[in-house]
Amino acid sequence: MTLRTAELLWGEEVVRLALAEPAPEPPTEALSAEVERHADPPGAFRAWALSQPWPRFCTIVRIVSGAYRRELLGDEDDGEG
């Protein structure tokens, strides 16, 4: 998953706001599994994610954009230019 994927799903401004949220819901294995379960088709996934409370939505954006992966790996460059 990439920042570009998140931006295509929700728009650059929404992704920027979600990634700037200082108190997103903590990521869990259960939420990651839920994201995977709802991931297809993209339109339904987008709608499902938008129906979540803001702190959870922010966490979903962080998962989809790869922000959590980069944080865990200490990698600031996602390779997307």
Short description:
With 81 residues, the protein is mostly helical.
Key structural traits:
single chain; 81 residues; mainly alpha; 6 helices; 0% strand
Let me know the average pLDDT.
90
- Head-to-tail CA distance between termini: 15 Å
Q: What's the tally of helices?
A: 6
Number of domains: 1
> What is the H/E string?
HHHHHH
Relative strand content: under 5%
Quaternary: single chain
Task: Give the beta-strand count.
Answer: 0
Specify the helix fraction band. 55-70%
Rg on CA atoms, Å:
12 Å
Largest sheet: none
SS-based structural class? mainly alpha
Question: What is the global morphology?
Answer: globular
Ranges where pLDDT stays below 50 over 5 or more residues in a row are none
Fold and architecture overview:
68% of the residues lie in helices and 0% in strands. It has 81 residues and is mostly helical. The chain has one domain. α1 crosses α2 (12-20) and α2 crosses α5. It starts with a helix and ends in an 8-residue tail after the last helix.
Spell out the blueprint of helices and strands:
Layout: H1 3-10, H2 12-20, H3 29-38, H4 42-50, H5 54-65, H6 67-73
Helix pairs in contact: 1-2, 2-5
